């Protein structure tokens, strides 16, 4: 997940018999068990005498700072104990065969994120946050970053009003010029965004702006920086990217309605959903379990979902289509500035078909 893979190195002590001259001192963070003085027989067997001593020999263990799961199930990064402390993280569980710790890196309002796998979360998470105003973090991508991946582990802001994010907003700043990154609100847990930044100098920021409306807000967004060689990199201009052979995709704010939330399509959306190429798979079968968007007379003009060149709109709970693998397969989502009809959006499942 890192750019030029970031590595941690720890020193592990192994006991060997050496002379007094040339013994190396131990690193500050190396733990060594007390060394016993050998008997004459032990010394002879080891090839030395009692004038010599047993000294620890250093072995450097190197491991990648990759993603890990903490003891309590949170997302973390595998670091040495000292690196985790130096980066302000919290160690929770081990990784790298016990040589590292799973370091949970959380940042909240007015903080800066420069390490892969860090999380931007609301103050006091998972408790509700109801402070009026702006909560913003600055992203400091490593050199060579092409994309920024945002994974919405948890996302609950005030719902839209007729499709407009009138109360709360979540905005991404710093994307390539011409990128159409949607403003988000409502419920978006489980969603993700790929942000192209290869032609941008920033500044890069994630901004949650909260209204005075009383609402149980909380969010937790994982940040990953991707370079051009990263296998997780999405095709350019794909806001969402799916790499599994089957899965479920929904529009933003498509969640079961509650007493305080609504399932409602957000206005002013124009974005592409893309699928990875997987060997042995060609066409993709797409089944809508819900499509509530645009004109019910099937004239799809300013609100629709397009699979390839074919547009779909209307109000249905059953619609199936096959996307042919004559080239890259994409789904285009478009909504205009009016959702006075409180259209819900869409939910679909997809299955990649064997060639």
UniProtKB/TrEMBL annotation:
Residues 109-228, 238-353 form the CUB domain. Residues 1-23 form the signal peptide. This is CUB domain-containing protein. SUPFAM superfamilies: Spermadhesin, CUB domain. PANTHER family: CUB DOMAIN-CONTAINING PROTEIN, INTRAFLAGELLAR TRANSPORT PROTEIN 122 FAMILY PROTEIN-RELATED. Pfam families: CUB_animal. Keywords: Disulfide bond, Signal. The keyword Transferase does not apply. PROSITE patterns: CUB. It comes from the Eukaryota.
